[in-house]
């Protein structure tokens, strides 16, 4: 690994490190992480911290809650967030800033650009951004769901050179090391494919976090496609951070793409959620990536979901093949109306006046999936 190329990094810390016993925040495991951040900054490396832990940190304030419903968890997050930020702030002798996000903030292009600008401004002024999902207000429709994937989205937004994801094990193994003594650590992953995901298994059972190894691989896939080297390391041992500072790989290194996706294409593919679908015939062969105007209402056989002008939509064939995610220039209501017109001349004249159905300004090709 070549740490000399790092100018900006994102480090993700999970709930188990923040509040290992769910009795409030503990600095026990955070000291070595904080020292790593301080040393990186001293070397001129900008750092963004993505920190889980608000629910775990606040849970001890609700001792009489046997059944924690969503409302109580949101209250725990609200109470625990201040304790978590306070704990981090005490470990640094420089200012930090709190950034709370939902997926709705990230998938809206205007708000996403605003987040980028805020991150850059904080970093340029030597302020440490501390990012977390806004669990107090988020809903199933609005949430990212885990801070592994959130950290990858933040790393892309921040144009980071490296993403470091802290885990409770040394990295990705070829099988579960808790159940198999002969499990082998993969120190290097060049391509993330189904065989890599097969090694991950499901979410961790009985832990205080929301993810597992699979979400970390999902995050790595998002990050490397943006040209960001990604590391899964053991966050519970100081040795991991000392090795990183020495330019050594303490865990699993996922290699970044040599030619990363363009920023707007990466956002469309990995961050923006499709709000609806446009279905075209299976023999549709137009190259949407090169010329979005080749998609006309005459090729559309169905419109699914409800979306507005400017929303992200998925264009796919009726055999299930995904073609592109793109910005829609039509609402679902209007597109349904135009597509169902028997008079093709009317539809053609309408599109000629109002412009193409999808915009190639933000368009991600999915046909190879």
Note the main sheet.
8 strands, mixed
Helix content: 25-40%
Structural class: alpha/beta
Q: What share of residues are in beta strands? A: 15-25%
Number of helices: 13
Could you name the CATH homologous superfamily of the largest domain? Answer: Acetylglutamate kinase-like
Per CATH, the architecture of the largest domain is 3-Layer(aba) Sandwich
The sequence of SSEs as H and E is EHHEHHEHHEHEEHHEHEHEEEEHHE
Average predicted local confidence, pLDDT: 87
Uncertain stretches of 5 or more adjacent residues = 203-210
Shape: globular
Structure characterization notes:
The structure is a single chain. With 369 residues, the protein is α/β, with parallel strands linked by helices. Helix content is 34%, strand content 20%. It has helices at residues 15-18, 30-42, 54-58, 70-90, 103-107, 109-124, 147-157, 194-198, 213-224, 238-245, 263-270, 332-339, 344-354, and strands at 8-13, 46-51, 96-101, 128-133, 162-167, 188-189, 229-234, 252-254, 276-280, 300-304, 312-317, 322-328, 358-365. The strands form two sheets. The chain has an eight-stranded mixed β-sheet, with helices on both faces. Strands 10-9-11-12-13 form a five-stranded mixed β-sheet, with helices on both faces. The longest helix has 21 residues, at 70-90. Mean pLDDT is 87; it is low at 203-210. Catalyzes the transfer of a phosphate group to glutamate to form L-glutamate 5-phosphate.
